[in-house]
Design a protein that fits this description.
This protein has 21 helices and 24 strands. With 622 residues, it is of the alpha+beta class.
């Protein structure tokens, strides 16, 4: 009896388990098709559909960067080339048979996701020629990507360029967006705003036979994903001002940076020599890249954000502000200047001007003696325990201006400049063995001090704003995004109180009224500026100038450096003042004197002979 019951239970259990298997197989094979999809994908090909990359426009909605298609000839993997007229195929794509074999072997080694690149960046002519006969060459197909092209031969250091993703890029990406063969922003705005510009790739699935020939859309597009185009990016650049400045700086080595002091938006950012951005897109870079790297003038180096220069006399307004805030001088302070400052046996020469020099006149006439005395008074002040403490206080003031650190601009390659800490002088002279006399050159912007042009322009904006600034940036608006990144909307305040700026600004106004830049002033615009002639141990002096205008309601702050050009008043100041006029009065007609000045600047070639280029492969924009 027990044996019968046990047999019965065993029978029921076997039937029950069998029923479970039958129901599960029914579910897998009939009701749920996901497993069949997985199986069928073995005979599918996924084709990536690349989105349109976001356009780049200037602040006035003028198109600067747009897209054009790039065709990559792809090969299905595993590779099963049969019945192909290889000779005719090589003729169509303009390669030798030996090259065909090399590419075929490479494709086998570098295949990914069932495909491999056979020829990158096929020309439009070859694409059109081969497309209509592609059915004859089973296993070959095209993928279409987007390269960049440019409306203007301008702004190359701001825009940057695209490049093919590298192995290190793939390994470091935090998301699985990119794959081998993709393009991404490698420099400039293209890199900084890659996440917004790139869009989202789409996918299309279709059946292929054993030769890789397309046999139709899979499941009526059930697995397909539509691409999502990138966001358009509006820059703060004024392309008209940018091009005008490039014309003035052509055939010179140096930089111009112009800002809107109210917002920190960059109106123009020029590094010269510059290069045609179209020469560095995907299709053309291989022809020009090596020549640009070998060019002794370094056209790919972004001097505007990467090159530190001693500020020279453009530093004097900063020194005046620190002296006033710290109590080393007062608005009514005068110093006598016999044409030099004596420091033991050392003589620091000065410019010709009246003996009894006020704060305002010291800026207008660029008096070295005034600032040597100011620096000495601060370094020897009773409020500090020693020179090191006084120096650290002076350095803290400068850091509040954004010096000695990266500002955080959205342009590639920013350098922090030079601002040494006290330990540097301890190592140089010995702990406690240095005083103001060892570092007196800092008082007039020489010595161990370096500012990038964008830092200099930012200082001009700080003075225009009477003590605050916004981090300089070239993003004006991102399509579909309510606000630009928060870091560019934060107001930064210096250690200088707003009431301290008035006498310094009056002195900077005198620079263009009766001082060192009076010969290149612009009638009808109150320009507050400061010239500088920067000592250069490697050649002629650099010409420097910073300014803002109109002084009563500043709308533009600007800095100009022209390398090895000589006096700031001769070369840097006229470039800046003409650009100020061009921005504030775009429709004004140049009077004959300024027309002559503009012509002189455009025609001058100030590139030192030691840097003369041997070719024109990186010729300037104008």
């Amino acid at each position: 009896m027990n044996f019968r019951f046990r047999s019965y239970y065993i029978y029921v259990a076997v039937v029950f388990i069998g029923l479970i298997y039958v129901l599960r197989l029914l579910e897998i094979q009939v009701l749920d098709d996901k497993y069949s999809l997985i199986a069928e994908k073995i005979s599918l090909r996924k084709q990536t559909i690349y989105p349109q990359r976001g356009l780049i426009l200037d602040r006035n909605k003028k198109l600067m960067v747009y897209n054009e298609p790039v065709y990559d000839l792809m090969l299905s993997v595993p590779i099963k080339l049969q019945d192909i007229d290889t000779t005719e195929f090589c003729r169509l794509v303009n390669i030798e048979r030996s090259e065909f074999d090399k590419r075929l072997e490479k494709a086998k080694r570098t295949a990914y996701h069932g495909k491999a690149i056979f020829i990158k960046n096929v020309s439009n002519v070859i694409f059109a020629r081969l497309q209509e006969r592609l059915y004859e060459y089973k296993g070959f197909f095209f993928e279409i990507r987007q390269d960049r092209n440019y409306k203007y031969n301008s702004s190359s250091h701001v825009l940057g360029y695209l490049g093919e993703i590298t192995r290190s890029d793939l390994e470091s990406q935090q998301e699985s967006y990119y794959e081998q063969g993709d393009f991404m922003g490698k420099n400039g705005i293209e890199k900084f705003y890659e996440e917004y510009l790139r869009g989202v790739k789409g996918e299309s699935y279709f059946y292929v036979d054993k030769f890789g020939v397309n046999k139709g859309i899979y499941k009526e597009g059930k697995l397909d994903i539509n691409p999502k185009d990138g966001r358009n990016l509006y820059l703060s650049l004024d392309i008209d001002l940018q091009q005008y400045g490039e014309g003035l700086l052509d055939n010179k080595m140096g930089s111009v940076v112009a800002l809107d002091p109210k917002t920190g938006e960059i109106l123009a950012l020029i590094s010269s020599p510059f290069f045609d951005p179209a020469n560095f897109n995907i299709q053309n870079r291989s022809k020009h890249y090596a020549d640009a790297l070998m060019d002794p003038t370094k056209p790919m180096f972004n001097r505007a954000v990467s090159a530190p220069y001693p500020p020279g006399s453009t530093f004097k307004p900063i020194m005046a502000l620190i002296g006033l805030q710290d109590g080393a001088i007062y608005p009514e302070t005068h110093f006598g200047c016999p044409g030099y400052y004596r420091l033991g046996r050392r003589i620091i020469k000065c410019h010709g001007h009246t003996f009894n020099t006020s704060l305002e006149r010291s800026i207008a006439s660029s008096c070295n003696t005034y600032y040597c005395n100011t620096f000495k008074a601060m370094m020897q002040s009773d409020k500090y325990a020693n020179t090191e403490a006084a120096y650290n206080s002076w350095r803290n003031y400068l850091e509040s201006f954004g010096l000695g650190q990266e500002l955080g601009v959205d342009v590639s390659g920013e350098f922090k400049g030079w601002l040494k800490d006290a330990s540097f002088y301890d190592r140089m002279h010995g702990k406690g063995s240095w005083n103001y006399s060892r570092i007196i050159s800092l008082s007039f912007g020489q010595g161990e001090l370096g500012m990038t042009p964008i830092q200099m322009a930012n200082v001009a904006a700080i003075i225009a704003n009477r003590g605050h600034f916004y981090t300089p940036h070239v993003v004006h608006r991102i399509e579909g995004v309510n606000e630009i990144p928060e870091k560019y909307r934060v107001k930064h305040r210096t250690m200088i109180s707003p009431t301290t700026f008035d006498p310094v600004i009056r002195g900077m106004l005198l620079v263009n009224e009766s001082g060192t830049a009076a010969g290149v002033s612009i009638k009808g615009i109150n320009i507050a500026g400061k010239t500088g002639t920067v000592q250069n141990p490697h050649g002629k002096n650099h010409a420097a100038y910073m300014a803002f205008a109109p002084a009563e309601n500043p709308r533009i702050a600007i800095a100009v450096i022209v390398e090895e050009a000589g006096y700031g008043a001769t070369w840097a100041a006229p470039i800046a003042n003409l650009m100020i006029e061009h921005y504030l009065k775009p429709d004004s007609v140049l009077i004959s004197s300024r027309s002559y000045l503009e012509t002189r600047l455009r025609e001058a070639n100030l590139i030192p002979e030691k840097f003369i280029r041997k070719s024109d492969t990186t010729s300037n924009a104008h």
